[in-house]
Every structure is written in structure tokens, then in C-alpha cells.
Design brief:
Distance between the termini: 21 Å
Helix content: 10-25%
Protein name: VTC domain-containing protein
CATH superfamily: Hypothetical Protein Pfu-838710-001
CATH class: Mainly Beta
InterPro entries: VTC_domain, VTC_sf
CATH topology: Hypothetical Protein Pfu-838710-001
Strand order of the largest sheet: 2-7-6-5-4-8-9-10
Radius of gyration: 18 Å
Number of domains: 1
CATH architecture: Beta Barrel
Number of strands: 11
Pfam family, one: VTC
Order of helices and strands: HEEHEEHEEEHEEEEHH
Largest sheet: 8 strands, antiparallel, barrel
Shape: globular
Strand content: 35-45%
Organism: Reinekea marinisedimentorum
Length: 252
């Protein structure tokens, strides 16, 4: 029933394609993140209709993402975030299931708290930089010394407003695994991420009527996944407020 309601609300949006965005591409941006119950998603979408367009790929408006995150054996990228260091990185291989494409991506959180994302397509590397060179150059760590520390995936609704040069992604049906097999699910949770050229409250998203239990948060999907998967082995102090909220959700 929930999936049907979500698709019904999405049918009211104008669509856009992968090559349509100009001002709202935002590979260099400021991020604001929010978490709220997935049960409220249809209501939110109804309020946002007319303010955003939705990514439409061959008639599909809910995309499926699968990720493999890489880190050092000592989990440097995780601990840089846990310890509040700016000028930090995340490295992942992302599979865009609906377009059957894969990218190796590096996210850089700068000293100015901006997010800068670079990536290289893994489907056709002819004439492109090799993955090892791309990652090693971006983060200053030998790619061959990195290991896969996490598998994850989710469904995503990607909204865009070019007039305000912003994107809004809404992720749900989030899951984590340490080895790609047994999965830990966060099925009752949504993560909304507002991506702007510069931080401003002048956004259709902030005009939403009160959303029950919606909290602005520093939710890092990679770090929260590590805290859930390896919490008995690593420090998680920085993420305890989010983990406490998650404990109120159904995790299985």
C-alpha cells in the first residue's frame, strides 16, 4: 500500500532526464540532511508537487542504488568523520541499477564544509583515468591498500528545482551488510538530503508543513552503517544521537 501511495504521488510531478539538469547538477555543494518516518513520505511528496521535477528513467521514478564502500584496514575515512575532521573523504563504488552503470566515486568534505564529488565511470575506461590512479590522486592513499568495509543499498527519489539551483534526494528501504550477504534493514526510515549551491532557507523544502518526527541530522550513510555493523569493535560516540533515534525504529 505504501509503495502504491508513493508512486501515485510521484505521478503528479513533471519529470526530467539524466541529461536535463544544468544549474542543479551540484557536484560542488552544501548538504543538509533530515530523517523522518517513511510512513510520512506520501504526504511530503504531495506538498512538494509543483515545486520540483522528479528524475524519470524509462518511466521509473524510484531508482535502486547499490554501493560498496572502501576504506583503509584501519578505517581512516570512518574515524576522520567520527573525530570531526574536515577535509575528509569517502570512497565508494556505486551501481545505478536502473541504468546498469557503475561509477567509482570520491566525496570530499572541505574545510569550508562543502561537499565536492568526483567520479569515473567503470563501464568504459578507454581514454579515462584508471580507477587506482583516480582514487589515489584524489585522497592521497594507495588504492591497492583499501578494502571493502561495507555493502549498502536503498531506493531513491531524486527531485530537482533549477530555479533555486537545488536537488532533493529521498532515500528509503536502506540496508547494510558487512559481506554482501546477511543484511541489516532500516525499512521504516527516510533520509532526505537537500543539496544546494549555497546554504539558504529559501527553498520549497523548508516551506513544508510540520513533518512528524523529522529531525535535521548529520546522518552519514557510510558512518551510520559502520556503527551499526561494527559498533562492538569501533568507537561510535559521535553517532550515538542518531543511533538512539534509530533504536526507536524497527531494525532487523
Amino acid at each position: 500500500m505504501l509503495e502504491k501511495n508513493i508512486n501515485s504521488r510521484l505521478s503528479g510531478f513533471a519529470g526530467y532526464g539524466l541529461d536535463d539538469l544544468k544549474k542543479a547538477n551540484l557536484m560542488n555543494r552544501v548538504d543538509s540532511k533530515f530523517m523522518f518516518p517513511v510512513s510520512w513520505l506520501p504526504n511530503m511528496l504531495q506538498q512538494l508537487t509543483g515545486h520540483y521535477r522528479v528524475l524519470d528513467i524509462n518511466g521509473c521514478r524510484v531508482s535502486t542504488y547499490k554501493n560498496q564502500y572502501l576504506d583503509t584496514p584501519e578505517m581512516k575515512f570512518y574515524f576522520d568523520h567520527h573525530n570531526g575532521k574536515l577535509n575528509r573523504y569517502k570512497v565508494r563504488q556505486r551501481n545505478y541499477t536502473d541504468t546498469q552503470t557503475s561509477f567509482l566515486e570520491v566525496k570530499h568534505k572541505t574545510n569550508q564544509r562543502r561537499t565536492h564529488k568526483t567520479r569515473v565511470c567503470l563501464d568504459n575506461l578507454q581514454g579515462s583515468r584508471q580507477p587506482a590512479d583516480f582514487v589515489s590522486s584524489a585522497v592521497g592513499i594507495d588504492y591497492s591498500k583499501m578494502v571493502v568495509t561495507q555493502h549498502s543499498g536503498y531506493n531513491r527519489i531524486a527531485l530537482a528545482n533549477e530555479d533555486s539551483a537545488e536537488r532533493l534526494t529521498i532515500d528509503f528501504n536502506l540496508w547494510y551488510s558487512s559481506n554482501g550477504q546477511k543484511k541489516l534493514h532500516l525499512n521504516s526510515l527516510c533520509i532526505a538530503e537537500l543539496k544546494q549551491a549555497k546554504s539558504t532557507k529559501n527553498s520549497p523544502f523548508f516551506s513544508l508543513r510540520e513533518v512528524p518526527h523529522m529531525t535535521q541530522t548529520g546522518f552519514s550513510k557510510y558512518c551510520i552503517g559502520c556503527a551499526l555493523l561494527y559498533g562492538d569493535e569501533i568507537k561510535v560516540n559521535r553517532f550515538k544521537p542518531v543511533l538512539r533515534k534509530l533504536s526507536e525504529q524497527r531494525i532487523h
